[in-house]
Specification:
Strand order of the largest sheet: 8-7-5-6-9
Number of domains: 1
Organism: Solibacillus faecavium
Oligomer: single chain
Pfam family, one: GT-D
Shape: globular
InterPro entries: GT-D (IPR014869)
Protein name: SP_1767 family glycosyltransferase
Strand content: 5-15%
Length: 296
């Protein structure tokens, strides 16, 4: 089966080169450089993964976020027109280099690129330098997984000794039940709808602005809504990181999972199914005390 997939992958890459006769030709920073710049220069990060790019290209809905013309327009503006020197735009590193990734991940992105090459080529600029949107997926997609511990330790430097506001869905429980945030100075949480959070965008943004200070780091796990919040908050002078997936990746790493599995008490749409949002409450007093706002 693996040999068949590999041959198919090579064939897809061959067709890609034959038809397009070129690669995207964009520049993507190494993860360590992204982490260093975010910590030293207090930069923000807005990530464009397959969900955000799919919305822009195909108007395709994500399981937890309906598509809309306004959402697509906003995503395009951030991806294409951003000129904020304090905001890093992330796109998948596999667009330019796939040697570190496992075969399943290579297959997924090879198909994604082949189908959408011309559109991606128009959306992305060779004059810009991007971050790696897959920075927040340091475990499951990699071929060699024994380097994950080091990757997580480096990522944890992003929030070390910082006062943090976490903006998350109501079934996310970001960092609850593990030690991902054991080096944070303080945590406050704004809990938002897990499904179709963009409908509440203005209310979410206003709630953050009411609570944030100049030294606060804002961490967000809220799909495309987090991508846009990172851009808008950066423009207002705040540091905001679209950091979704990192908590679930950490849970999989801790369990040495070989494939994406359910994590008790946390919703994972990639496992539960498209749009299958099932809020689950984790009885954790610290988590409850950290909540400063609930948006329904």
């Amino acid at each position: 089966m693996k040999n068949t997939l590999y041959k198919l992958y090579k064939y897809i890459c061959y067709i890609h080169r034959k038809v397009n006769n070129k690669y995207l030709g964009i520049s993507i920073l190494e993860d360590q450089e992204v982490i260093d710049r975010i910590t030293k220069e207090k930069l923000s990060l807005a990530r464009f993964g397959d969900g955000e790019l799919g919305l822009i290209i195909n108007k395709s809905e994500i399981g937890f976020q309906e598509s809309s013309d306004f959402l697509i327009q906003r995503l395009k503006e951030v991806l294409i027109e951003n000129n904020d020197s304090k905001l890093l735009i992330g796109v998948p590193k596999i667009f330019v280099e796939d040697s570190e990734y496992d075969l399943k991940t290579k297959m997924f992105w090879a198909c994604f690129i082949v189908k959408r090459f011309d559109i991606l080529n128009n959306l992305l600029s060779q004059k810009k330098v991007y971050a790696n949107a897959s920075l927040t997926r340091p475990y499951m997609d990699y071929k060699v997984k024994n380097l994950a511990k080091e990757r997580f330790e480096n990522i944890k430097k992003l929030w070390e000794k910082r006062d943090v506001i976490i903006v998350e869905g109501d079934s996310t429980f970001f960092g609850v039940g593990n030690d991902l945030f054991d080096n944070i100075k303080s945590i406050r949480r704004i809990v938002c709808p897990s499904k179709n959070a963009f409908i509440k965008y203005n209310e979410i943004l206003e709630s953050i602005l009411e609570e944030v200070s100049s030294n606060t780091l804002i961490l967000m796990a809220l799909g495309p809504t987090a991508t846009l919040l990172a851009a808008d908050l950066s423009k207002k002078g705040y540091q905001a990181l679209d950091i979704g997936h990192i908590d679930i990746e950490y849970e999989w790493f801790r369990k040495s999972a070989k494939y994406k599995i359910e994590i008790e008490g946390k919703n994972i749409n990639e496992v539960s199914g498209e749009g299958d949002i099932k809020p689950k409450y984790i009885a954790n007093e610290n988590y409850t005390n950290e909540i400063i706002c609930i948006i329904k």
